[in-house]
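User: Design a sequence. Structure:
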């Protein structure tokens, strides 16, 4: 996406800076793994007298996991990113809200999607299909908002993964667990690659002094 306006380009660079180190992917991928664990627990406890724990776990995973993800990402950036390449101070008017808009929309869509799919009865293996499509759309939106190709690839992979699991014999609960586990691992690996590249290109200030 071409952005010619200097102000828009400046805002875009600020947005891309938030995602340059891969830390967001690490946090988001861990949240997906937690959701995968939840749906696997949901499958195990079906028909069990402790099945009521699943609803409690859902709230803990989605709401608590989102807050923990935000805290983890911010903490890692304060320890890893900001000492190396600085902290971007955003305008109080619009740019700060626009910068975090993509992340908020993804998390909000994820929360609504999980609650909806956990309450609505769908045909066997339909939940992974719907999840893959909705998750893919959210990732593509982030790609459009940030002009970062990797989010488009995440979105495409999510849709293909949802379709593939829908044609498997795993069913809804195991299928959802598999979907979130796989997509979570893929996003984490992507984040680790980006973080490794970022650390290589931007050594810590102390490391630079030692080399001198």
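Assistant: Done.
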């Amino acid at each position: 996406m071409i952005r010619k306006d200097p102000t828009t380009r400046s805002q875009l660079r600020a947005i891309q800076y938030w995602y340059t180190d891969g830390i967001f992917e690490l946090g988001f991928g861990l949240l997906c793994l937690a959701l995968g664990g939840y749906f696997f627990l949901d499958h195990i406890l079906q028909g069990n007298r402790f099945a009521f724990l699943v609803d409690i776990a859902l709230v803990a995973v989605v709401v608590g996991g989102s807050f923990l993800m935000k805290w983890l990402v911010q903490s890692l950036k304060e320890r890893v990113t900001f000492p190396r390449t600085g902290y971007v101070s955003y305008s109080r008017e619009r740019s700060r809200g626009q910068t975090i808009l993509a992340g908020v929309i993804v998390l909000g869509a994820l929360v609504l999607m999980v609650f909806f799919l956990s309450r609505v009865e769908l045909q066997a293996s339909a939940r992974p299909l719907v999840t893959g499509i909705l998750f893919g759309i959210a990732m593509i939106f982030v790609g459009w908002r940030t002009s970062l190709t990797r989010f488009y690839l995440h979105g495409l992979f999510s849709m293909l993964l949802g379709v593939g699991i829908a044609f498997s014999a795993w069913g809804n609960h195991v299928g959802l667990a598999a979907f979130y586990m796989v997509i979570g691992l893929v996003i984490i690996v992507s984040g680790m690659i980006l973080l490794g590249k970022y650390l290589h290109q931007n050594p810590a200030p102390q490391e630079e002094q030692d080399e001198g």
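Residues 195 and 201 are 10 Å apart (CA to CA). DSSP finds eight helices and no strands in the chain.
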